[in-house]
Amino acid sequence: MSKRKPRLAPRNGHVAAMRLRKSGSHGKTMKAQRRADTIQFKKSIRDIQTSGPAAVSLSAWGAQISEFGKMAELVEGAGL
User: Fold this and answer.
1) Digits of tens for pLDDT over the chain (80 positions)?
2) With the C-alpha atoms ordered 41, 47, 50, 54, is the resulting torsion angle positive or negative?
């Protein structure tokens, strides 16, 4: 007489999807947001710089880039 095989319970299709789903917030992280803001600011400077007679030296804007980052951190820290 052969041994009877155990009967497996039916699989739940939702479990596999839930195990692979990433949890957490849906928005950008703070680091990604800061980087995006910096890149956008640099692009706007580059556009101003290449816009003809109103060209501005990038070195004159160097201090403002760091100030922009500090202001963004202060605003984020204040919860505004």
Assistant:
1) 678 888 887 788 888 778 777 777 778 889 999 999 999 999 998 888 776 555 545 555 555 666 666 666 666 666 55
2) negative
